[in-house]
Amino acid sequence: MKKIVNGKELQEKILESIHLLCGTVKETLGPKGNNVLIDHSNFSPFITNDGVTIAQNIESEDETIGAILEIIKEASIKTNEEVGDGTTTTLVLLESIYIKSLEYIEKGGSPILLKKELDKTLETILNELQKLKRKATIKDLKNIASISAGDEKLGNLAYQVMRRVKHKEAITVKEIPENKTTVSYLKGYTCETTLASPYFLKDINKLICKNAYILIMNTPLTNLESISFLLNDILKNKKSLIIIANGFEDNIVEELVSISLIEEISICLLKIEEYGMHIYEIMKDIECITDAKIVEDTITSKNVGIIENIEITKEKIRIDFKTAEKTKGYLTKLKQLLKEIENDLEKEFYEKRIAMFFNGTALIKLGAPTKIERIEKRMRLEDALCALSTSDKGILLGSGISLLQVASKLSRKNAACKIWKEALKKPLEQITKNAGLNFLEIRKQIEDEKYNLIYNISNDTWEESLHTKVIDPFLVVAQALINATSIAGMLLTTKSLIINEYKNNSNKETEYNNW
Asked: Counting beta carbons within 10 angstroms of the beta carbon of residue 166, is it exposed (0 to 12), middle (13 to 18) or buried (19 or more)?
């Protein structure tokens, strides 16, 4: 059975969905925004003001509203995936654009023509923002991190780590149940691995091997006879041996552990903790920095490489290496491949690998007394890291002030311009409202001062725009505008919603079989 919702009923459901989602999330906008308590069936309750997290947890038992909510969530989730921030601003803009557009359509306007006008005006807005942006200074970057984290200490931590490793993909954040936070930096190539047996570590937390042999196998290790020449060599010369394989038999593991313990040499058998082609890609990286040749069939001495220094734990390995011409050529190919990748997760995988070749990695152990506080603290730290990673494309006056400035440049040529002029004022209006301030008074003084004086809501002071801490990354603001327009336009031009309903699983199975 199919349920079809259209006309006025669908319009009302869309409006209800927007008010439900955007109305909840926008209360958190700004430095003095409110928090939301989320009670999730799979986790302990936690408190956050992270827009995308709140949006993801808003659902409805009404099937129609539930379907629409998923579409609206896409706006905030996509912004978060692309720039890591700006999710709440996206929803504030979306709500205003949709409501004002609906008023125009109800008076007889064409939704299709309006959508085209909204998109065209968006181009003008983005061009005006380009003119307003400037390059970020070190002070600006620290301020951006502090604003995104909602905490100066946490923002400074994000800035220091990003300055060292350069890429957020090379930073791992781990929550710990302690009341302290530590950072450790690792030079070299790091990847998560699983040891075939904890006994390879010989009752220590970390095994360090120098000038060790390494064998990389894109096949399982099923017998020791195939590597007998290698075992003889390490026994004779008391060398260490690292074997990375796609799998191994239990008896192989037991025999290698015995050799390692009896002969008092270091042997480690492990596999890479990844999935699909990612395993092979990491093998290729290790092949490049060790001069080993990946085993695809028969093992020969040509497959064996040398590692100057490798650290092995139960969870990962770290390999030191020197940059050579071969490595530079390999990195050039990786960068070319990265340009062709559109999938965000795949892009992140490549960016992290490239970052490790240049600057190594960082591990932030983020501590807080309670789990709720750790979750909330981690979200704010990750927001700061994302904001820093996008700031190299330029910065703007923050808190919606740049959008207010652009709104003043738009002429009221058509309905789209009028809609945009109202929408561009909403972020600052919501930020001041959440802080308990008078939006009209603050806006008037900013405009009277020709945007040379900015109100900092965090500390309730007026600041010169050239020296203000109230700043946002250009990409975050731009992406919020683009995604809000996209989803609003799709909702305005949607006239029917079809919901497939099944009375029970047998009916569903019958329909699938009819295909």
From this structure: middle
Phi, psi of 163 (to 5 degrees): -65, -30
Q: Report pLDDT for 293.
A: 94
Three-class SS of residue 377? helix
Range list of β-strands (E), 230-354? 241-244, 247-248, 267-272, 305-312, 316-320
In angstroms, the CA 248 to CA 80 distance is 40
Which segments of 300-391 does DSSP mark as H helices, in order? 325-340, 344-359, 371-390
Express each pLDDT in 164-183 by its tens digit: 887 777 788 889 988 889 99
pLDDT, position 515: 35
Encoded amino acid at 235, one letter: L
| Cα separations in angstroms, 150 against 109, 221, 345, 406, 492 | 42, 51, 27, 26, 35
Give the β-pairing of 36-38 and 46-48: antiparallel
> In Å, what is the CA distance from 282 to each residue of 2, 35, 94, 366, 504?
47, 41, 41, 27, 45
Identify whether the C-beta of residue 170 lies closer than 8 Å to the C-beta of residue 360: yes
Burial 188-200 (b: 16+ CB within 10 A, else e): bbbbebebbbeeb
Amino acid occupying residue 298: T
In 3D, which of 134, 141, 63, 32 has the Cα closest to residue 389?
A: 141
What is the reported pTM?
A: 0.65
DSSP conformation letters of 404-448: HHHHTT----SHHHHHHHHHTTHHHHHHHHHTT--HHHHHHHHHH
Q: Distance between CA 464 and CA 412 in Å, rounded? A: 30
Alpha helices, H only, 84-151: 87-106, 111-132, 138-149
Among residues 219, 334, 346, 336, the alpha carbon closest in space to that of 271 is found at: 219
Please give the full DSSP string across 13-65, using - where no structure is assigned.
HHHHHHHHHHHHHGGG-STTPPPEEE--TTS--EEE--HHHHHHT---SSHHH
Distance from C-alpha of 454 to C-alpha of 399, rounded to nearest angstrom:
10
Nearest CA-CA partner of 155 in 85, 80, 56? 85
CA-based torsion, 30, 172, 480, 129: positive or negative: positive
| Cβ pair 3, 499 in contact under 8 A | yes
Amino acid identity at 372: I
Angle at 359 between CA 353 and CA 363, to 5 degrees: 80
Q: Which residues of the chain have pLDDT under 70?
A: 1, 40-43, 75-76, 78-85, 323-324, 344, 501-515
d(CA 479, CA 187): 33
